[in-house]
Amino acid sequence: MIQELVFKYLQNEASEEEVVQVLNWIEKSEENKLAFIELKKMWLFITPNSDAKNLFDWNQLKNQFPTQRRKFYSRKWGYVASIAVILASLSYFFTKTNSTDTKINDNLENVIVLEKSSGSKEYISDKTNKIIKDEAGNVIAKQNDKELVYYKNEAIKTTVYNTIKVPFSKTFKITLSDGTVVHLNAGTTFTYPEQFVASENSRNVVLKGEAFFEVSKDKSKPFIVEANEVSIEVLGTTFNVSNYQEDDFINCVLTEGSVRLSEKINPENSVLLEPNTKATWQKGKKFFTKKSVKTTNYSSWTGGELIFDKETFSSIAKKIERYYNIKINNNYPFLASQEFTGTIKIKETAVENILELFKLDTPFNYTIENGIIEITKP
């Protein structure tokens, strides 16, 4: 069964769930890793000059492989000829290895990855359920579709951290061991304690990307989100933080409660937020600005919607790129500065339909090829 999946994986024909099955099987043991390497080598040697088009043929060739290799070594090649063949084989092997690694990396870009404190990884499909264990075999969390729920374990005395990476075009939700719920947007990396231990004075997490927090109240242990050079401290509240590397700002929008944002290296440089306000930190300028906003415009993505209110096309295009895992090259400067207001149900709408809606207001031409949208003047 696993050989069939590995074959589909190497052929880049596996579904998302099948890719996750293969990756989890590889991570399960050193024996599996070695077995995968052997299968990959076998696949690389067999596929180039064969007509193997399906699993049946591949299995036939695989079974013949040891015999073929023995014959290869038993022949009385001249010394020079042997070296030439070996060098040619190695050259082909490394070329194909790079090609296969590229395919593997392409697959990994579409999979949610959980990195545990030990360095081991769990590959998560948002359409399956699974149990997450620590290195000692203890159950630490359970996945239900698009949510990962950590169990509270007061016997744990040492803080260790897990990191989850959500690729573009996906969202995910985590319930931490203190009951805090964190919605993770597309293209987000989130680092958090596997358990919040009693000896720590605060609950610290690290965010790169975007997340909506519903923090469990604990007056004795403030919850602190570290977002590059900014720290966001709360006791119990709901708020949205956006900290994408490609943006020149960090935003925090408060829905309920209160939060305090401060510069990490200069905590006195800070701002206190009230509900329905947004604080913005301009990267490189080292100051905060604050204004009143409609908070639903910033948290609607958790429900599969994108709401924009007098927002420029260039800003909207960045969000579309993340939600649909595409690249938009806008070669029409007039369109970039145009402002739009509206709501898009991103879970139900194809990107072509969104572009057609924008065209009704501001006409432009576009092409889509290999995940890249080229926009030009009409």
From TrEMBL:
Bilayer-crossing regions: 77-95
Domain Protein FecR C-terminal: 305-374
Domain FecR protein: 167-260
Organism, as annotated: Polaribacter gangjinensis
Keyword Transmembrane helix: yes
Single Gene Ontology MF annotation: sigma factor antagonist activity
Transmembrane helix as UniProt keyword: yes
Keywords tagged on the record: Membrane, Transmembrane, Transmembrane helix
Designated name of the protein: Iron dicitrate transport regulator FecR
UniProt cross-references to Pfam families, sorted A to Z: FecR, FecR_C
